[in-house]
Amino acid sequence: MSDVPWIIGAGTALLLGLSIFITLMTLTYQQRRLQHRKELDHLTMAYQREILQARLEAQEQTLLAVSQELHDNLGQQLALIRLHMSTLDMTGTQPPGQKVQFCKEVLDQAVTDLRHLSRRLNSRHVDHQSLPDLLRDLLQSIQKTGVLTATFRLQGQEQNIPAEKKLLVFRMVQEALSNSIRHAAATSIRACLAYHSDKLLLQISDDGKGIKPSELSSRVGSSEGSGLFNMHYRAKLMGARLLIRRQEPRGTLVSIELPYYTPNTTSYDHNQSSPCG
Fold first, then answer.
1. Domain that holds residue 152
2. Is the Cβ–Cβ distance between 251 and 208 less than 8 Å?
3. What pTM value is reported for the model?
């Protein structure tokens, strides 16, 4: 009987200790869950902000491209029509059929180009088109300038990706092409979009002077808002892998690998020969 009080006391102490332990574990779990929720909310907000920023940048790039197209293409077409119309023989001594036909053909092309521009001015232009169509139009607009040659190649069966990720990929491509045009002194640009079973691989290459490793590291590590910094940041946000490297004997390669579902897929070896040829 003398051991009963000791057993009761030990049992009470054990229950009290267990209760304290469970309480502490519950509080710790709730704190970690709250912290995790805050981090998740922060990442969600950062992702949404980046989507909005990318959309605004895409619209700005579109407006710049449209203004240039209006000046360089439609402006010249209308000026050419006006020139031919002003040289028509209104006396009837010479048949105007050939010049009128030429003006009609140029005017038809101007109407087609204007319709194309109006579609690009749509604020949801990126949402309404597939990624291959967006890239094809982008490369064609560069080709039409006559400054350099631009080609696009598609491999595999097209797969749907979320509109937000498509927008981020599109903005990364715009930035890569802009760098090739402004900084690389390139004469040709090639873009290839390859759809694999678990991911897409997008590669943009040029024949320019090529980016130096030291220049690449300094520009990537520069302040927020720089082009290469934004490309790496956006790739990280959507779980993509981005590689930018110098090619031999000249040129730069930009490679974007985006898994369809999860970043835990087998990665493509960017050091191998390109599947885009």
1. 131-277
2. yes
3. 0.60
